[in-house]
Amino acid sequence: MHELEPVFNPRSIAVIGASRREGTIGQQVTKNLIDGKFPGPIYPINPGATEILGLKAYPSIGDVPEPVDAAVYCVPADKVLEVARQCAKAGVKGHIVITSGFAEVGNKREEDELVQIAKGSGGRVIGPNIVGTMSNPAKANASFAPVLPYVGQTALISQSGALIIALDTVTYARKFGVSSMISLGNMADVDFADCIEYYAQDMNTKCIALYIEGVKNGYKFMQAGRWAGKPIVALKAGVSAHGAAAAASHTGSLAGSVKVYQAACNQAHMIWATDLEDMLNKSQALAMQPVLKGDKVVIITNGGGIGVLGSDAAERHGIPLQAAPADVQAQFRKFMPDFGSPKNPVDITGGSGVAGYEGAIETALRCPWVDGIGVFYCETAVTKATDIANALITKLKETGITDKPVVACFVGGAGSVEAGKVLLEASIPYYDCPNKAMSALAALRQASRFQEVGCKVDFEPYTDVDKRKARSIIAAARAAGRKALTEPEAKELFACYGLPVTKSSLAKTEEEAVHFAQEIGFPVVLKIVSPDILHKSDAGGVRVNLKDAEAVCAGFRAIMENVRRYKADADLHGILVCEMAPLGSEVIIGSVNDATFGPTVMFGLGGVFVEVLKDVTFRVAPISIECALAMQQEIKGYPMLQGVRGEKRRDQEVLAGVLSRLSQLVSDLEDDIAETDANPILLYEEGKGCRVVDARVILKPR
Ligand code: ADP
Ligand code: MG
Known about the structure:
702 residues, 24 helices, 30 strands, flat, binds magnesium ion
C-alpha cells in the first residue's frame, strides 16, 4: 500500500474539533463527509459532545474503539501539537491539518514539530493551512469546500486553498472532471512531488494539474515529473524578477525569471499553462483524450473564419496544419459542395448539415494520414449544434477509433453551450474558441513527446575533466578571501572542463607583457586583472589588436593609467596578455545557482540581443549536447546562428558541447559556484569552433 493512501484514500476518518455549531469548520467538514456519502466510519471528536449531526462523538481520538486512517484537524493552532501526539498514539497515519497559523505567520518551529510527531509514528502530514482534501473515488470530502467536485479524471493539486474553493463549483459549471482535489497549503511534509508520485499510480487519474506558487525541493519535483509517466499540467503563479537585483553577473540578472521555471517544468515533462483558463483547457483534453502521436492535425469546419483562426492557433502552439495529400483531399471532397475546400482546414461550408460533418469526421477518423482532429463548428440557422455534437459522438462510437485525439470547438450561443455539455459528457473536450482548442491539442502532442522520451536521462558526464584542479583553483581564491575568481583563474577553471578559452598569461611589468605577447604571437589583447574591477571595459581596462611590442608597451601604460583614474585603491594583480581571437558572432553562456532548481545554465546571443531584447534561454544543469542544441534553436535570434546574408551556419555543435561541459562544471561544483559567465564567446562558422574570450566566476558565500 502506498504510504499516502491514508491521506488521499482513507477508509475511516476522524474530525478533530467537529462541532455542533453551524458555520464552524469543524461542522462543515463533518457535514461534507456525510453529504459526500463517505462509505467508511466518520468519527467526530469533541470533548463536549456525545453526538454531532447524528454521529456518535468521542471526547478524544484515543477513545475511538476502531483504528482510524485519517484525522482532519479543525482545532485552533495552539491545540494542534497535542492533537498530533494523540493521533500518532492512536495509530492515525493521515494527518490532514486544516488549521492555519504556522510557517505562513512565522511559526516554523511548531510546524516542524508537527511533522516530526506524525512521521515518528509512520504518518504523513498534508498542510497545515489548507482547505482539505477531496476524493471522488473514495467519496471523501475531507474539506470545508462546498461539495465533492464534478467527477472525472484530473487530479487537481493547489497550493492555494482559496483557488480550491473557487474551482470546486467551477468544475460543475464547466463539466471539468476531477478525481481528487488537494489543497497543499504550507507543504510542511507532503509536497507537489509526493502528490505527483501518488497520482501517477492512481488508476482513477489520467492527468495531474498543479497550481504552483513555489516549489520547495526543485530536484525532487523534477524527478517526480519525469517518473510520473502521466500528463502533468503546471501553472506557476507569482513569477517575478526576484533576486535579480542581487545578482552580480550578467546571467544572474537575467535569471529568477519565469524562464527558469518554464525550463525546469519542461525538463520535468510538465506541460506549461499560461493561466488558469489554459490549465483547465489543457487538463480537460489530457484527461479525456489519447495523446497526439504525430503532427498531422486536421480541422473540419463549416466556417472559413474559425478554420483560419484554428490554423493560426495551430501554428502558434507548435502543431502547424499540413495540406492533406491529394487522395485524402479527394475523400473529403465527397462531403462538401464545389465551393468547399478539402485541403486543411477542411471547409465543408456553412450550408453543410449533419451529413457533411458525419462524412468528413468518419473520413478523418479512418484516414491513416490523420493523427488528430479538430471538429470546428459555427452555429448557423440551418443546423442545430447538438445534432453536430451527436454526429461526432456517434461516429466515434461507430468507428471504434480510440487512439486518435479529437477536440471540439463550437462557436455560438446557447445552442453551442448546450452541445458543449453533450460533448463533455461523452469525454470530448469542448472549447468556445479556436485558440483554446488548438492549445489543448498541442498539449496532447507534447504529452506524446514526453512519453516517447520516457524517464531516460540523456546526460552522459564527461570523463576528460580535471575536477581536482578545478577545486584547487577555487580553494586558492577563497584562501585569499575573494568572492570571485579573476579572469585568468576563471579561464583556468573553464579549461579544466575542456572549454576552449583564449591562451593568456598574467604580466606584472611592461617587459613581461612584451615577452608573453611574443610567446603567444601577435596580435594580442591586454586586459586589467583586478578583483575590484568586474567590468574591465568600463574602466578602460581592455586594449585589443595590439600588433607589436611597442603597441603592447603603450597599451600596458594606458590601461594602468585608466584603471588608477577609475578606482585609485583597486587591488591590481597585473595585466593579462591574451591571444587575439578572430572576429566571430558574439554569444553568451553562463549559469546561476537557482534557489529552487540549483545550477541552471543560460544561452543567448551577445550584444543587444541579450542586453536589450533579453533573448535568452535556460536549462537546469546538467544538460546533454542535444539539449544544448535545442536551447540554441529556441531563441528568437536563432536565424543568426543559421547564417544570415550569405554567412555560413555557425558551429552550433561545438557551442552545444561547450554549454554541456559548462553545465557539468557548475553541477560538479555547485557548492562553490554561484554564477558564471562566458561573455562573450566568439563563435565561428561550422567546423571552426568557438573561443571563450572573457570568463567570470562568482563564488557562493560560505
Ligand atoms: P569586459 O566584459 O570585462 O569589459 P571583455 O574581456 O569581455 O571585458 O572584453 C571586452 C571586449 O573585447 C569583448 O567583448 C570582445 O569583443 C573583445 N575581446 C576581449 N578579449 C578578446 C580576445 N582575446 N580576442 C578578441 N576579442 C577580445
Ligand atoms: Mg565581457
